[in-house]
Amino acid sequence: xxxxxxxxxxxxxxxxxxxxxxxxxxxxxxxxxxxxxxxxxxxxxxxxxxxxxxxxxxxxxxxxxxxxxxxxxxxxxxxxxxxxxxxxxxxxxxxxxxxxxxxxxxxxxxxxxxxxxxxxxxxxxxxxxxxxxxxxxxxxxxxxxxxxxxxxxxxxxxxxxxxxxxxxxxxxxxxxxxxxxxxxxxxxxxxxxxxxxxxxxxxxxxxxxxxxxxxxxxxxxxxxxxxxxxxxxxxxxxxxxxxxxxxxxxxxxxxxxxxxxxxxxxxxxxxxxxxxxxxxxxxxxx
Length: 286
What we know:
single chain, about 290 residues, alpha/beta, 5-stranded mixed sheet, about 55% helix
């Protein structure tokens, strides 16, 4: 009886500790909810079992399935190798369910990738349906990249992973900011700063000066898309400048190598040094 009582007390103490940790760290709570709301547990399409969906999103899931083969081929070509394993796509009709599944606890994100899953917000099936294919491809870029990178390896900076995904998807998640808009902003002094922010805050990429939003502009989405598009331009410039070096960087990162040393080995300098060269090239091309 004494042993049983001790075990009960220990279990209660552990449960209390978990509850305290979840209350103090919302990201832990969101991650735990995601474990119990895996989109792979949803029904899958007979025509493409990689696509899982909430029943009310059946038609939207069919649209995602139609776009999936082209998106997979595009990302594999852009990243330079096949997916490590077949991706799973989750298409949601309910915002609350989507927030529980995406690992962020946030329903105000158009798409999220997590643990080999590309998840699409209900907004992709409604007012932003026109973005569905490009956002799907963007999220598949993340699935591909992190599918090869070992679990537990430190994440590269947000500007790199998001810029890569925008580049590989031909503008996915930055659709309303063009390459020309981003280049002009950089020339005008509204360039991103290449810091080491890695995850959880999609608005964490800082600017040298906040880019003007304009009348009717939604600052949060504009700021995010401007940052992503500028990062995409930079990564595209790096790749065009030395395709072999870019390929070496990708393979090193996919193998779990640290970002900073890998970048310097590939491009003979830090990201900030190469950004200065990139910005100078934009000024020369005015």
